[in-house]
Amino acid sequence: MNARAVALCCALSFALASCSREEQAAQTVDTSTLELEASNTVWNTDITFTDSMVTKARVHADRARLYGTRQETILDSHVVVHFFGTDGARLAELRCIQARVDNRTNSMYATGDVVIQSDVNGTRVEGVSMMWDNASRKLSSRDYVKVTRIGEVIEGGVGFESDESMSNYRIFKVKGVKQ
Known about the structure:
The chain is mostly beta strands. The protein contains one helix and ten strands, in the order H-E-E-E-E-E-E-E-E-E-E. Strands 1, 2, 3, 4, 5, 6, 7, 8, 9 and 10 form a ten-stranded antiparallel sheet that branches. The radius of gyration is 24 Å and the shape is globular. The model is unreliable at 3-26 (pLDDT under 50).
């Protein structure tokens, strides 16, 4: 064997040895602290978010999975959220495929065919995701949204922020408006 072939064999051996060590390290990751299964699963559930005896929102989902260690609840299968004003009147309805509730803050992140319909002014918002901040009572999204209100359609806005009734909203990076 010439020196070039020996060097190539050594380099290949070193590369293969280091790959196998990395694979072994990846295989020995401790998964005992990961919570892969829900600690509780509830079917056909309703959750009410209140503050000082005032109902802020009422959520219905066909299935809710509670993950205690992660302090979150995953809602899926026909998620419907009703938002209420301080006077108890319904402000809007949100529908989505799935939502994640942070059990520490009670804020919610909705994903999948999100549609919000305002009872106050008829404004309708459609998007792929929407965040509801429980403390500020604001809705927001960093994704594409389509806003429809009487006589106007705003297409292609990226980014959205609003109050729960969608009376005061902002759309960032508007792409087009149809009258």
